[in-house]
Amino acid sequence: MAVTPAVPTERPAPESAAHRDPNVLRWLGAYAASALGDNVYYLALSWAAVQSGTPAQAGMVAAVSAVPRLLLMLGGGVVADRFGPRRVVIGSDAVRCAAVLAVAALLFATTPGLWPLTVLALVFGAVDAVFMPAVGAMPARITSRDQLVRVQGMRGLAVRFANVVGAPVGGLGVALGGPAAAFALAGLFIAVSLPLLISVRVRRLPPDDAAAAHGLSPWQDLRAGLAHIRRHRVLAPLMLAIALGDLGFVGPLNVGLVLLADERGWGASGAGWVLAGFGVGGGAAALLLTVRGRLPSAGRTAGFAILVGSAAMGALAFVPGVLGGAALGVLVGLFTGLSGALCGALLQTHAAPAYLGRVTSVGGVVSLGLAPLSMPLTAAAIGVWGTGPVFVASAAVCGLGGVIALGVRDLRRAELPG
Question: Are residues 233 and 348 located together in one domain of the fold?
Fold first, then answer.
């Protein structure tokens, strides 16, 4: 693997905590702006597709970006490791910004139908396949190992902020100027992230890592990354635990929750309260990790958090009232947010720096490619067996990830630097 240093000067280890490090804060601002742009973009895409075609066609446009992500994500990890995550993040964010603004300009000028939206969704998905592994590899290159949990917490807060603010801002854009204005807003938010990303400094790879795979082809790079995970005593079971959690979680907390709310007579507002509880719990977990910076016994804590979060998710199907559902939503958000951040930090600290893009891409294939496929399967299963059995089965799949985390000795004993 040919690794090119991202910048000519090496970033020294920060003397202060990550939340006081200007370099980390610039990265966080860029990440928040880009995530905010993503949220506005997805709302604008859905709204424009609904206006331009049938509901089925709109659904296809919204889903089409998942295909290139699934097919290209592993290659995106190779690209991130070969050329450096900073360079790849800047380049891919610039492409995303240009594509969104181009469609905004086209919609301002004419009414072209679904084809530009489909092309935009495909381009966005293909670029995301490179962008996301590079984003995953960035934290370990901008801060010290003992600050990675705090950075994961800060990243979680940025995601919650983007989720809360993005939809209202996108809706305001649509109300004032239609989908074209919303696309323009999305492009501007992504554009804000670019100068911040350019100002972020990253570490060089250690000489041994930088020279570890010179001369390898991209295919050999990919195989080396997969072998790095397979042979690692912590990464292999950790990746399996993450995959099981994503596969069991996505269906019930998306389409399953809507069907559950309809069955219980909660309505859309009831589902919204449960999701709000989930957001509150996830935000609390992110804030806790940002303030604390480290939790002891990371592997064991992550395993127990997965189990508790899974049990709370399974219990959702048996709560008769909205208030109880919202309370369980808080627990699900709190413990899945905690386990997700700890698993992410463990992945960052145990993967060799030269392989971080490829390691991140493997997790992305599951969470962004395979896990969404569980949504139609969850809906079909609920139609046959009902919400209770399906939520319990999904919780068992999630919980199996916690069993692996606690049952595999090296993962159970895994610690984070302190």
Answer: yes
| pLDDT of the residue at 25 | 95
If asked whether residues 179 and 306 sit together in one domain, one would say: no
Handedness of CA 407, 408, 413, 415 (dihedral sign): negative
pLDDT digits (tens, 9 = 90+) for 119-172: 999 999 899 999 999 998 999 889 988 898 899 999 999 998 998 888 889 888
Q: Return the CATH number at 82.
A: 1.20.1250.20
Are residue 275 and residue 390 in the same domain, yes or no?
yes
For the residues of 279-345, what is the DSSP string, one character each?
A: HHHHHHHHHHHHHH---SSHHHHHHHHHHHHHHHHHHGGG--SHHHHHHHHHHHHHHHHHHHHHHHH
* Mean pLDDT of all residues belonging to the chain: 88
Task: For residue 210, tell me if it sits in a domain.
Answer: no
The residue whose two tokens read 């199996």 is 400
pLDDT exceeds cutoff 50 at 9: no
Write down the pTM of the prediction: 0.86
> Are residues 123 and 95 in contact, defined by beta-carbon separation less than 8 angstroms?
yes
Clarify whether residues 334 and 270 are in a common domain.
yes
Domain co-membership, 373 together with 342 = yes
Instruction: Count CB-CB contacts under 10 A for residue 13.
Output: 11
Say if CB 46 and CB 58 are below 8 A apart.
Answer: yes
Burial 25-37 (b: 16+ CB within 10 A, else e): ebbbbbbbbbbbb
Transcribe 178-247 into DSSP letters. HHHHHHHHHHHHHHHHHHHHHH---PPPPHHHHTTTTT--HHHHHHHHHHHHHH-TTHHHHHHHHHHHHH
285 & 338 share domain: yes
Q: Which domain holds residue 163?
A: 18-144+153-200
- Residue 184 domain-assigned (yes or no): yes
Number of domains in the chain: 2
Query: Among 249-258, 272-281, 320-329, which stretch is predicted with the lowest mean pLDDT?
Result: 249-258
